[in-house]
Amino acid sequence: MAEEEKDEQVIVIEDLEEEVEGDTQEEPQKETKAESKSEAEAEESEEEQLPPPSSKKRLIFIVLTASIVVVLALLLFFVFHSKKKQPKKPVSHKEKVVKKKKAVEHKVIKKKAVEQKVKNIPYNPAVDVHFISAMRLQEKGNYKAAINELKQASIDLYLSYYGIGYIYLKMGDVKKAKEYLIDKTKQYLKLTIENNPDYIAGYVNLFRVYMSDGEYDNAKKIIDILALKKIDNKELSLMKVYYDFIVNNKVDEALDMADEYPNFPLLNGLVGGVFLKQGLIDKACYYFDKALKTSFMGSVYYNKMLSEVAEGKYRKATDLIPKTYYMDFSKIKCKNYLSFFLLLHSHKFKAAYSFLQLNKKYYPQCYSHFKIIPVVSSDLTTKSLFIRRNINYMFTAELLNMYMKPIKFLIKGAAGSIKLGNLYESLGLPNRAKISYQNTAAFAQALLLSERAVKFYAARNVKGALVYYEKALKKVNTSPILLYNVAIMYMKLHNLKDSYKIFMQLNSAYPDFPLPYLGLFIIKELRGDHKDALNNLSDFLIKFKSLGVLSKNMNDLGFLVNFIQNGQVGKYNALDSTVKRLFLVIKAAVDSDFSLLSLEGGFINNLGIDMNSFSETSILEYLYKKYPTDYIKRTISDYYLMKGRYEDAYRSLFGIVQYTATDYYKLGIAYLMDGYPDVADNFFTKSILLGDNVYNAYMAKVILQAQSGDFKGVVYYLKLILKKERVWLNTNVFLSFDIKLVS
Fold first, then answer.
1. Which of 625, 623, 651 has the alpha carbon at shortest distance from 637?
2. Each residue of 484-520: pLDDT tens digit?
3. pLDDT tens per residue, range 423-439
4. Of 12, 89, 436, 710, which is the most buried if we count CB atoms within 10 A?
5. Start-end of H helices in 569-710
6. For the chain, what is the total number of helices (H) and then of strands (E)?
7. Taking the CB of residue 252, how many other CB atoms lie within 10 A of it?
């Protein structure tokens, strides 16, 4: 239905005070050409009536008559002038107001006379300076100035109300918007058709307002009035179809008429609504967009918003909220609820709360139109989480751990101990000689035990190797080589705690020994301390380069570590085939190239990693199984949450050394998504008690209440969120919700 009619009156909206002030001063009237012409003609006639100069008697008579007239005039002047002047009566304030109102009325009457002349000229807002200025100011967010411009626009009054009401919607003031879009417009249109019963456009627009406000009986009266006037045109037919569609749910007539009049925006909106109810979203949006190209209708925008919600496009749906109220306050209770949930979804809590407050009580019939379904959301993907969490470096550290080998225990100091014992004995110091001989025997025993450990390690029996290395260390507890070998065995058995203690001991006693730095790198990476781990890797390279002659194994490690830190390949061809394959696997791990890792699966199995196929899941699960540190537990829990494996998510968080508010929050998410809302609610409460300065757990509580339809609970927790400034929990996994339309 067209919003602008060719025969609509043109009215300027001005403030009353400005109009009154403008009428207080009257401009002097200019002399018209007609008046000057008539005066000239009068002068000419007077000249023609003058007597000719030859008739002296007549002239004397005229002079005497004129003298008598002058004397009489002077007498009258002195008589009246001698009377006292009466003082002017003071004008009261009330009389001034009345006078001003009369001036305003005179101005309006004069204006209407002018408007009557241009009654049949259609108004085009595009050429109205004030209207254009208002639109520009509105786009810039300068709403008050835009409203002032609309008050001065030379457009029909109800069109200005449209613009002003829409701006109030943008400002979030729905009450004020309804006042302009419905109440003031209705009052104006009723007055217009009362003064001008033949103003058909006024009836049509008043019908729209009644339908928008749900006053269907009054809307039907408008149809009857136009029928009595024998108005039989497309507008009236469309009004009947629209009324029957909304009130009586008659769909067929709307579809038939849509084929007959394909360019009618209201019909397109109705047809789109039919397809929306049928779940044909693409077809519905086609007709909605077609309708909105030529007319702005709140009902169509509302259905368009429902279509966006049905497809999960919540941001687009949220942008449409103000437009859904545009000249259409029908279903306002349901609109308020849907607007509330859309704004809540985008975390605009204050705006959401204002829409919820518009409904004075709970309306289950509105809420039954859609369901709130909790979902897990994150800005990350599983792959980006994998890379961002440095799991690739953790796996690289594990590969280095598998490749690192124990150092052969040498007993070069044994000969010196024997010589020292002989010297002590020749000097008559038997006790000292005995100690030297015992040290020599201890070295020999340690050597035998160490050789035994090497055999167990060659047979891939790391536990057996550790037993003999520990026995050897008891014999020579100051040997850095035996200390290192024991630490390596601990690390290969995933005992990071004891391994870390020995590496730190070696680091303190033998700071130039490079291998303990590499051991610290591996342990810190597996704990999740990536930054500190890279520092230890740098220390290893510095100590490594400062050494002279190196073993083959040390050179291989130097090559691999240099690539991990700097990405430099080095002398690749100098490596043997085994180390080359290890290098390719490490490169694939750093680059998260799972396809290459899967090809080298057999080789990795030889290093002790038992996995059938390589993927981010298999690597995470391997690390979680072998090194269940708090960091790995939290990482794999995030991963499972994003994968939808909720039972695995909360199971992986069991056994954390010290739980944080974030841990409880994620436990709550996992239990809720696995179908245990009561357990989830308990964990959300724990999160709040442990970290009261966060939004997440409160937001989760709101979602829980909304899911169960408890709006008292929704309002309660929303008020807690708005009570004071809070911050989001430091997490990359959030609990959000989807809105599912029921009908």
1. 651
2. 999 999 999 999 999 999 999 999 999 989 999 999 9
3. 555 666 666 655 554 56
4. 436
5. 577-591, 594-599, 601-607, 616-626, 630-643, 646-652, 661-673, 677-690, 696-708
6. 41, 2
7. 10
Backbone angles phi, psi at 371, to 5 degrees: -120, 150
Q: What is the mean pLDDT of residues 185-203?
A: 82
Q: What is the Cα–Cα distance from 603 to 581, expressed in whole angstroms?
A: 8
95 contacts: CB under 8 Å, gap ≥ 6: none
- CA end-to-end span of the chain: 27
What Rg, from alpha-carbon coordinates, does the chain have?
47
Q: Is the pLDDT of residue 722 over 60?
A: yes
Q: Give the CATH number of domain 628-741; options: 3.60.20.10, 1.25.40.10, 1.10.150.530, 1.20.1250.20.
A: 1.25.40.10
**In 504-541, which positions are buried (b, 16+ CB within 10 angstroms) versus exposed (e)?**
eebbeeeeebbbbbbbbbbbbbbbbbeeebbebbebbb
Q: What does the alpha-carbon distance between residue 608 and residue 589 come to, in Å, rounded to a whole number?
A: 16
Q: How confident is the model at residue 18 (pLDDT cuts 50, 70, 90)?
A: very low
Q: What is the pLDDT of residue 116?
A: 41
- The residues, any chain, with a CB within 8 Å of residue 247's CB and separated by 6 or more, are 216
- Domain spans in the chain, listed from the N-terminal domain onward: 628-741
> What span, in angstroms and rounded, lies between the C-alpha atoms of 474 and 645?
48
CA triple 205-208-211, angle to 5 deg = 155
Say what the pLDDT of residue 687 is: 94
Phi/psi at 215 (nearest 5 deg)? -90, 75
Pick the closest to residue 396 from 212, 530, 595 (CA basis): 530
**Section 140-153 average pLDDT:** 83
3-state SS of 274-327? HHHHCCCHHHHHHHHHHHHCCCCCHHHHHHHHHHHHHCCCHHHHHHCHHHHCCC
Q: Please, are residues 341 and 316 in contact by the beta-carbon 8 Å criterion? A: no
Contacts of residue 435, defined as CB under 8 A and 6 or more positions apart, other chains included, come to none
Task: Report d(CA 425, CA 605) in Å as an integer.
Answer: 56
CA neighbor of 618 nearest in space, from 397, 391, 376, 399: 391
Least confident of 135-139, 408-412, 656-660, 705-709: 408-412
Contacts of 187 (CB under 8 A, 6+ apart): none
